[in-house]
Each structure stands twice: as C-alpha cells, then as structure tokens.
Design a protein that fits this description.
This protein has 105 residues and is an alpha+beta fold. It has 3 helices and 5 strands, in the order E-H-E-E-H-E-E-H.
Length: 105
C-alpha cells in the first residue's frame, strides 16, 4: 500500500479568546464534515500537530488529496467556542520544518 502524502497548514485564529485544543479540533472536524460529508472528512486524515492558545495559531496535518477541501472548510468557520471567529490559512507546506521557516521570514 502506498504511503499518503501529507501537507501541513498553518492557521491564524481571529477570535476574542481561543478555545481549548480539543474544542478547536472538533470545530474543524465539524466544518469539514458539513462541507464534504463523512466520507470526505475521513479521507482528510486531519490531525492537530500544534496549538497555541495565547498566540492563537495552529498547525494541522492533512492528506494531500484533501488540502483544498480542508482549506475551504476552515475558511467557512465562523464560530469557535461559542464566539464569533475567523480562521485563516497562513501557509501550506510539505514539512513542518519548511512551514515554520516560511512563517519566520
């Protein structure tokens, strides 16, 4: 079986107070499921790699085939933790190292 190619998405949360990591990941899963259904969400292979409540940033791991769907679902999120919010994809990369280096510059 061939290994799945993955991409890492750096996200910035525009929200008054960021929710906990579990609540954030649940909100992402919910948004992806609403957009592409349960089968599409299962193909996404979503995982939360890093989450910084104070910095209001997150890094998600996503299967390559679902990057566009996850980007659209994240952009469609308007509520986090019961509060109005917006989530922006800041960068996409094939490795965490390159993603973090790209964010520094």
């Amino acid at each position: 079986m061939k290994r799945q190619k993955r991409r890492y998405l750096a996200l910035r949360l525009d929200v008054e107070s960021a929710p906990g990591d579990r609540d954030f990941l649940d909100a992402v899963w919910s948004s992806v499921t609403r957009l592409v259904g349960e089968v599409g969400a299962s193909l996404a292979g979503l995982a939360l790699v890093r989450y910084d409540i104070e910095g209001k940033t997150a890094i998600l791991r996503v299967n390559l085939v679902a990057v566009d769907n996850v980007r659209a679902a994240v952009a469609a999120m308007t509520v986090l933790g019961g509060k109005a919010a917006a989530v922006h994809v800041v960068a996409v990369s094939g490795t965490i190292k390159a993603l973090l280096e790209g964010l520094k510059s």
